[in-house]
Design goal:
The complex is a heterodimer of chains A (231) and B (218). Chain A is α/β, with parallel strands linked by helices. Chain A contains five helices and ten strands; from the N terminus they run αβαβαβαββαβββββ. In chain A, strands 2-1-3-4-5 form a five-stranded parallel beta sheet, sandwiched between helices. Chain A has a five-stranded antiparallel beta sheet with strand order 8-7-6-9-10. In chain A, β3, α4 and β4 form a beta-alpha-beta unit. About 3% of the residues of chain A have low confidence. Chain B is an alpha/beta fold and 218 residues long. Chain B has one domain: Rossmann fold, CATH 3.40.50.10490. In chain B, α1 packs parallel to α7, α2 packs parallel to α7 and α4 runs parallel beside α5. Classes of the chains: A alpha/beta (231), B alpha/beta (218).
């Protein structure tokens, strides 16, 4: 079986994951339709089967509301990993919120891919039979993710070459004109609202985009919300 | 796993001054491909070697289901999650006939009660005492083949007339030699990861074969 492009995707995701762990991040795993896979990923990292490998903070979140639980649990620098189909609405929403929470997002699945940019790292099995969750394909994928992540730990110099996730690409989203994603924390009063971004909680002018309410996503530019973003 | 991770000699800047991630990323991708190939080869070899046994197990399981039996699956750690996956596959299949299955790792209250009051070796066997009937099936997964609570559960299951099916790694361990295990399918590997991947395939093929027996369109 050839991995094809998935091998490169796994390599890139592993290095970023190792960097987040090295910086003190926690990996939160969700899998609404196939909770056993989310649990397997979490136990793999927390309790390595190979003696001597470090235990890494990874947690399965058993929830009927992915966004509500992750919103409370995730801190800047953390990782959200979902094992879910592209049509899982709670997962898609959580992935979109990753930049506002300061979280790196990994989306593992099969069959139809999520839209481009739906997560920081999309690790997709090319299998349209609907059987990938049951046939061992996912197990191989997250085993490889664990194995490669631990290879990265043998390269300490490469584990601290970026910050907590804001500057992943050529354009740094915290300092360019692109705008920063923010999640509205509470309903606005007087045209202002407390919002959450990768940098923390701040007050933003939301008068241009009202009506907005708690949980909505907006794009911030120079302290003002300039547009709403589908959550 | 352990040998091909020692790739440090390939890199001139193995120390904390290493800055160029390109070489590492290329090596990671190549390593992923190599491990996937090894996994695939092991799966093929396992299905070939255990094919007859697998078909026999599937036939015996189908008889149990047809007689009103249920499947109880169990294991520890990653194998616990794989036991959950097997139960979900039988219970709520993506296609075919739904067959009653439940994993004994599911209920935290029961697991912690038994572990706290008696010991972890009885967390599965005591559940079988409460639930199992003679037509039922016990499916235990242990990559080492030596997990105490899995072996204890098989002893209880066998005494109660259940069909006992084991999935093991390495040389099969005690699971392969125990007379309380009717059928033991072994993945001959000393890598826990590669073993679990092949065990997942074995469980999936077992489900497929049972589906054919119980009359689902293949």
């Amino acid at each position: 079986m050839e991995l094809g492009g998935l091998a490169q995707d796994l390599a890139a995701a592993s290095l970023v994951l190792a960097r987040r762990f090295a910086a003190g991040g926690t990996m939160w795993c969700v899998s609404p339709a196939w909770p056993a896979h989310g649990r397997h990923v979490a136990v793999e990292f927390v309790h390595p089967v190979i003696v001597g490998k470090r235990a890494l903070p990874s947690v399965f979140v058993d929830t009927d509301d992915v966004v509500a639980d992750l919103r409370v649990l995730v801190r800047p620098g953390d990782v959200v990993l979902a094992v879910a189909g592209a049509d899982e609405p709670g997962v898609a929403s959580a992935m979109r919120r990753g930049p506002a929470w300061g979280a790196t997002t990994l989306w593992v699945g099969a069959d139809t891919r999520p839209a481009a940019g739906a997560a920081d790292h999309v690790l997709w099995v090319d299998d349209d039979t609907g059987l990938a969750p049951w046939s061992g394909r996912f197990v191989l994928l997250y085993h490889l993710l664990w194995e490669l992540t631990h290879v990265c730990f043998e390269h300490p110099g490469l584990l601290r070459s970026d910050d907590a996730g804001a500057c992943e690409d050529d354009v740094c989203i915290t300092c360019s004109d692109e705008g920063r994603l923010a999640e509205v924390c509470a309903d606005p009063t007087g045209g202002e609202a407390r919002v959450r971004t990768a940098a923390g909680i701040e007050t933003a002018d939301v008068s241009l985009v009202e009506p907005v309410s708690a949980g909505d996503l907006v794009l911030l530019h120079a302290g003002s919300a300039i547009t709403r973003v589908p959550g | 796993m352990s040998s091909d991770e020692r790739t440090g000699f390939l890199y001139p800047f193995i120390d904390a001054d290493e800055r160029d991630s390109g070489a590492l990323l290329a090596d990671l991708a190549a390593s992923a491909e190599a491990k996937a190939s090894a996994s695939s080869a092991l799966q093929t070899a396992t299905i070939e070697r255990e094919g007859d046994a697998l078909r026999a197990v599937a036939g015996a399981m189908a008889q149990r289901f047809t007689a009103g039996g249920r499947l109880f699956s169990f294991g520890n750690g990653g194998s616990a999650t794989d036991a959950l996956t097997v139960a979900a596959l039988f219970n709520r299949p993506p296609e075919g006939v739904a067959l009653p299955a439940r994993s004994l790792v599911e209920d935290q209250a029961v697991l912690t009660a038994l572990a706290n009051d008696i010991g972890f070796e009885v967390v599965f066997s005591r559940q079988l005492i409460a639930h199992a009937a003679p037509h039922d099936i016990a499916l235990g997964i242990s990559t080492s083949g030596t997990s105490r609570n899995v072996l204890v559960a098989f002893a209880e299951a066998k005494a109660r007339g259940l069909l006992t099916v084991g999935l093991a790694g390495y040389d099969g361990g005690e699971l392969a030699t125990s007379d309380t295990v009717d059928h033991c399918l072994v993945v001959r590997s000393d890598s826990v990861h590669r073993t679990q991947e092949s065990q997942a395939v074995l469980a999936f093929e077992l489900w497929r074969a049972v589906q054919v027996h119980v009359g689902a369109p293949s």
